[in-house]
Amino acid sequence: MRTLGNILWIVFGGGLVLAAEYVLGGILLCLTVIGIPFGYQSIRLGLVALFPFGAQIREHSGDKTSLQLIMNILWLFTAGLVIALTHLFFALLCFVTVIGIPFAKQHMKLANLGLMPFGKEIH
Predict the structure, then answer these.
(1) Would you say the pTM of this structure is higher than 0.85?
(2) Segment 41-98, tens digit of pLDDT
(3) Quick one: pLDDT at residue 121?
(4) Which of 34, 40, 86, 116 sees the fewest Cβ atoms within 10 Å?
(5) Residue 108 φ then ψ, to 5°
(6) Are 45 and 110 in contact (CB under 8 A)?
(7) Quick check: 122 and 55 in contact, CB under 8 A?
(8) Which of 60, 57, 24 shows the shortest CA–CA distance to 39?
(9) Which residues pair with 59 in a beta bridge?
């Protein structure tokens, strides 16, 4: 079922476009030394955006560090809020139809990850 959901996500849910945008943005961020951690998170978002069905997002089992908090705050105000609101908008559009409800759930998962990605594990 995950495979079918991922195929439908790529074809109808815009997964390929989302993943390409995240990965391209991540590569551009990695060109600067300061942007490498943010680029890495963007590439991780791109991989989840390509195959969201079956991906589980959990809080990191270790201790929260002040660096994660600072990085999440910087991410939130530079990209996270826009990413989360965009996924929320698309989730609402998908939720209107019965067929789009599974896609809406995946957009909500991506919005949660996109809001504050530091300190979260993807399985």
Answers:
(1) yes
(2) 999 999 999 999 999 988 877 777 888 899 999 999 998 999 999 999 999 999 998 8
(3) 87
(4) 34
(5) -65, -40
(6) yes
(7) yes
(8) 24
(9) 120
